[in-house]
Specification:
By secondary structure, this protein is of the alpha/beta class. It has 2 domains: about 120 residues, Rossmann fold (3-Layer(aba) Sandwich), CATH 3.40.50.2300; about 100 residues, Orthogonal Bundle (Arc Repressor Mutant, subunit A). The strands form 3 sheets. It has a 5-stranded parallel sheet, sandwiched between helices. A 4-stranded antiparallel sheet has the order 6-7-8-9, with helices on one face. The mean pLDDT is about 85. The chain binds calcium ion (CA). Calcium ion binds next to loops.
Length: about 220
């Protein structure tokens, strides 16, 4: 799940970005409306968290612009105002939900989850292969009915493999889709994390699900 965070107040932006990353979401943060529109055009986000007051254009205009361009990504608006008319304006402009500052991170997280769930209604959010299950909304991973605790990077890697079940994913694909830019694609970071995953997912089970395709990459299959 990839989230675009649009917030010009550095303190809030950092706090939200850090919190969401700890919850294993992929987060891109931008600080003004123009960059937000640009990023939203390039990347298929699952959710946009949009501050109302931005230095160049306001959040309402960003929202309207996105909807005009037929982008139906869920939008959670952040605002310092709590007046009813602002709320109505926000929802009229195409926002899906509203959160008034200051807010507790747990409150933001609850809204984020609700919007992602709503978006995914009718779509598959539970990825399955054999007795392995990954819930893209709650980020819970189970094998044979037992929960497996993964770190955020292990989770991101497994989610990517499971989204491409029965298909080979190359190391280049993994570094492009899973790792943040601070990972050097020339290192063997992917192999290291595949090993961590194997220890948690496959170790002790008769049927191994993660397979190496020598010289190419990896595949998850029965
Ligand atoms: Ca602001």
């Amino acid at each position: 799940m990839r989230i675009l965070l649009v917030e010009d107040e550095e303190r809030i932006a950092n706090f939200v970005e850090r919190g969401l990353k700890e919850e294993r979401y992929a987060v891109d943060a931008v600080y003004n409306g123009k960059n937000a529109l640009q990023m939203a055009r390039i990347n298929p986000y699952d959710l946009i968290i949009l501050d109302l007051m931005l230095p160049d254009m306001d959040g309402l205009s960003v929202c309207e612009e996105l909807r005009k361009n037929k982008m139906d990504v869920p939008i959670l608006m952040l605002t310092a105002k709590s007046g009813v008319s602002d709320r109505v304006t926000g929802l009229d402009s195409g926002a899906d939900d509203y959160l008034t500052k200051p807010f507790a991170f747990e409150e933001l997280l609850a809204r984020v989850r609700a919007l992602l769930r709503r978006k995914k209604t009718g779509k598959v959010t539970l990825l399955k292969i054999a007795d392995l299950e990954l819930d893209q909304v709650t980020h819970k991973v189970m094998r044979s009915g037992k929960e497996i605790k993964l770190t955020s990077k292990e989770y991101a890697l497994l989610e990517y493999l499971m989204m491409n079940v029965n298909q080979i994913v190359t190391r280049t694909m993994i570094s492009g889709h899973v790792w943040n830019e601070d990972f050097d694609s020339f290192t063997n970071i992917t192999d290291v994390y595949i090993n961590y995953l194997r220890n948690k997912i496959d170790k002790g089970f008769d049927k191994h699900l993660i397979h190496t395709i020598r010289g190419v990459g990896y595949i998850i299959k029965e």
